[in-house]
Amino acid sequence: MSETVEFYGLDPKDAGDAGTIAAALMMLKYAAGDPTPVLDEIGTRGRDLTTQKLLKNRVKPPTTDAVLELRRKAGQGKYDGITLVDTGLGMRMVSYKVNYRRSVDVGVPDGYMAYHEQGRVPNAPRRRFLTMPPASYIYKVIKWHWRKALRKAR
Fold this sequence. Notes:
Number of domains: 1
Order of helices and strands: EHHHHHEEHH
Distance between the termini: 43 Å
Number of strands: 3
Helix content: 40-55%
Strand order of the largest sheet: 1-3-2
Radius of gyration: 19 Å
Strand content: 5-15%
Shape: elongated
Structural class: mainly alpha
């Protein structure tokens, strides 16, 4: 399961829509810039935002009081990490992938965490935790790489 940011319309006929991410990436491409580092930076930020969200328990709906009570007891030796987040396995599962210089996927492998994201865990609510950076961040990254490409072209 993954969140995807895909950039379509990178050919000249679609790049005329000023203010769009596709137009900004097209400008970067014309300045002899490679969009892969841009997508890599977006993926890294999405992965980091997702792990922060999990660690700070900002997932909706929030963790139940019963699970929080079990977590408190974990420090007393009664339980050894009751969730994938507690054991650290969940954090290591979150990853990203750049696809064909056109898109970025942030996600987790198919399994228990993906089922929570999709709402497929029996007797448990859907818990959306995968996160991508906001468009304002994406524009800043593109602008920085675009300026870098223009400096190289001079």
